[in-house]
Amino acid sequence: MQTKGVKIIEDDSVERAIEKVANKLDAKYSKKRKINDWFLKELSGFRKVGSILLNVFFIAIIIFASMLCLSSIVSRVSGTAPTFAGYSLMRIASGSMEESGFNVGDNIVVKAVDTDTLRVGDNIAFYVYSKSYTNFDLSSVTKLDLEDTATKSNVTFANFFGFQSSSIQQASKAGSMIVFHQIVGIYEDQNGDRWFETQGTSNNGIDAWRTNEDYVVGVYDGSVLAQGLAGLLNALTNNGIFLLLILIPFAIFTILLVFGFAKDLQKAKLELDVVEEKRKLTDEICVKNQIGYSMDTKTKYKVLAQAKDEEKAEYLSLLWKDGSAPNSVRKYILRKQIYLSGMKKLLQLNRECEQMFKDKEDPNKIAKHYIDEKKKILSEQEKKEQRIRHLRKKRA
Q: Domains in the chain: how many in total?
């Protein structure tokens, strides 16, 4: 550009310097923003369903492992066999039941049973407690001849978590041994208590004792579920695995807790970025995480003041829910919108009058047009102002 022979050089050094600083700041915060976006990214579709299922799976593992640990602790403290959900783990210690397929060293599972449903031929685990079988009087009992029927489970809230009856705990503390034999006879005494005559199927004779129903731990269960529980209960007898089962749910719980804390921390960082104008409240990630709603009132006013005029209305909706913003804020925004709208109309009117003057129209006509239109604009603004004065505070 030349003016009177002098060349004018346009200096854009200031603009370039500003752009350089802006790029540096953007690079500085881009990594943090990526971290924010990763933590606060809203899942959708298949990923959202997968996340829900994963959380349910983790919670189920924590609950299941916790119950296993509780039952193992109870069994260790009481000295009884490892028990969970009414199932108890046993290890065959002799060859008395080899004829029935139970060999020395085999792990078996017996389930808590309603002793009234036990029949001859059932294989049961029981405590041989001297104070019990010495009370058996053959002359005062009746031998029962019961029809064959399926055994009925007797899982209670107590034995679900490994707590055994007081009779079994008493026998365990006395050091009584657990025997796994087959029922060959059932008796009932005058009090209605049942007694079981047992025998190892590989032994020549019946056992020398009669077992009271209070000392029966359970009846043999050969189902797939029982075998799976046998593996779990057997693992609990290993101290290393026992500790691992305690650490696993604790570790999962800690991870979930830390992840939740990190997410809250990133939300706080996102809110700070909005306050410091490093992000806009209208950014997608801010809107999805409802950053504006969580701010305190003072911060909301500050963020609203920083917004551009054309952003005020949107900011207002993102800072207060359901029109619950203070009346003063809503009135301020509306008044400013009315004022700007009026100013635009007056500016347009001035340009119209200027154009009419350039077109050499009658000055009186121009003046009349200006006065009439200005009155309309001011009257319209006054009506809007009156409506604002009567604006009532809306409740959330």
A: 2
For residues 364 and 215, give the distance between their C-alpha atoms in angstroms, rounded to a whole number.
117
* CA 168 to chain CA mean position, Å: 39
Considering just the CA atoms, what is the radius of gyration of the chain in Å? 42
Task: Supply 160's token pair.
Answer: 């679900």
Collect all residues with Cβ–Cβ distance below 8 Å to 57 and sequence separation of at least 6.
Answer: none
Q: Is 88 left (phi over 0), alpha (psi -120 to 50) or beta?
A: beta
User: What are phi and psi for residue 12, nearest 5 degrees?
Assistant: -110, 20
Residue type, 250: F
Strand partners, 83: 88
pLDDT tens for 164-201 read 888 888 888 888 889 999 999 999 988 889 999 999 99
What pTM was estimated for this model as a whole?
0.48
Among 203, 229, 255, the domain-final residue is 229
Whole-angstrom Cα distance, residue 82 to residue 229? 11
Same domain? For 202 and 339 the reply is: no
Residue 49 lies in a domain: no
CA pair distance 337, 314, nearest whole angstrom = 13
Same-domain check for residues 87 and 220 = yes
Give residues with Cβ within 8 angstroms of 311, minimum separation 6: 280, 282
Domain end call among 202, 229, 256: 229
Q: Are residues 218 and 94 in the same domain?
A: yes
Range(s) of the domain holding residue 371? 284-389
Write phi, then psi, for 157 (nearest 5 degrees): -60, -35
